[in-house]
Amino acid sequence: MTAADVSRGRGRPRDPRTDQAILRAALELFTEHGHAGTSIEQIARRAGVGKLTVYRRWANKDELIAAAVESARGEIPNPGPEELADLSYAEISQVIVDALPVSARTLAEPGYRAMLAQVFGSSVTHPGVMAAFWQNHLLPRRHTAHLALSRAVEEGVLPAETDIEALIDMAVGAVVYRLLRPDPPEADELLEYLRTVYAQAGMIPRQ
Amino acid sequence: MTAADVSRGRGRPRDPRTDQAILRAALELFTEHGHAGTSIEQIARRAGVGKLTVYRRWANKDELIAAAVESARGEIPNPGPEELADLSYAEISQVIVDALPVSARTLAEPGYRAMLAQVFGSSVTHPGVMAAFWQNHLLPRRHTAHLALSRAVEEGVLPAETDIEALIDMAVGAVVYRLLRPDPPEADELLEYLRTVYAQAGMIPRQ
Lengths: 207, 207
Prior knowledge:
The structure is a homodimer. By secondary structure, chain A is an all-alpha fold.
């Protein structure tokens, strides 16, 4: 019995396969139809469970969709800032370079791109999903990028007047924008693009 | 009688007020409910016209929504590349700086932000709207940015190895990303943000 079960006053232990089935159904429906086009009832039906089984786990649609989005990007690596804190620019940027192929493969998957479009598409009408995506997915990666760019400034690779936060927005923004533009990239093309943008931002050295 | 009427084999002259009413209704419904949540029937009803009146003007929903999105961003200035072709980096970047306050005001409007979210949100499920937005709205602005950055490289303001296309993606991407993040900016904050990002990209000098 998990803490979440106790806090909701339920006694039965949770079956992780049920959680997975619900998250998968929520992710599929959100990706296909967006936040507004998806209901808890449809999610429960596709997962083969009752609505109460869903509500026992997630308080509302926002929380469930945020968790489903969260579950979709487990593959993208991100070393924690603690692991990187004492490293040089060359060492941190090497860690970033090493992580790029797996990131490119995940980001270039049609399903990921479709999900990303729905996250951005629902950002104004249903800001909860974007807020969760921001907090859980983007912020930790911003910390890594911030560390790399701070070292680059300290070591004189980038000029002292560099606006680090703006540069991070520019690198992340370019990748999102490239993924949602007409003519989406294949994984190898996206890997090349990530290298180009990260190098232009100064997060990694030019090849 | 316009060329479009003739090509569709209709004899009656078009009333521009009807066009406006249809475009306004299409923009409102698309902004509120997205591409999938909007039908030609709903648009016609909100505009107070019959479905045939809509189909006489636009062949399908994609074309109509693209035209509606087009009509929403008339305020954002963009000098043509011809006007700028013979200017120096200082002159071109001054033109860009002068255009920023109007751009910031338009982009920061809640309605514009909501529309932008739907354009990006429908980019995978209904790529026609994004393709039109790309062609009509973004490409002409990329030409201006390209000219400014080319001059910056020629005049030694930016290093010779600058990747101009990547830098443009980064500047545009950062602005889109800033608009659709949680905690959207007011017009004056967005103006400051545009200045920071454009300066970091080298499109305008640092203040």
